[in-house]
Amino acid sequence: MIAQRAALxxxxxxxxxxxxxxxxxxxxxxxxxxxSLSHGGGWxxxxxxxxxxxxxxxxxxxxxxxxxxxxxxxxxQPILDHFGDNTETLCRLWTAKEAAFKVFxxxxxxxxxxxxxxxxxERARATATVQQQTLTVAWHHLAEPAAWLATAVANT
Length: 156
Known about the structure:
The chain has helices at 2-14, 63-71, 77-83, 87-104; strands spanning 21-22, 28-29, 34-40, 43-49, 53-58, 114-120, 123-128, 133-142, 147-154. It is an alpha+beta fold.
């Protein structure tokens, strides 16, 4: 984890990112625009946007099955129907919910916080139930090491 944090800092420096601040809840912010950071599964990622954005990267792992009851609910059925009920889909759901949480910085319940409105290819539209805000979620499969990257952007 220390190596991933160092790699993330090097990535930001190499791309001349502006200085970030953190809100009390830990959400990073820029003076102009929005940003999100993540590291996991041997990867680091950073994103910035004029719209609220969240990113998450995670390796697909069997441990997601053990935590399933805490983050997969009836509202997730459209995702399960589209991608299949398997470890890779659980990783997609986990990363999407982490990314959605990062869009707002708080208030997204992992079990009931997203209502999936449409799924098409590697993208989906969801509504954050508490915020009543729609999000576009996109997934990207990463290789060597294998992981899933999810990006969530608030639709304004």
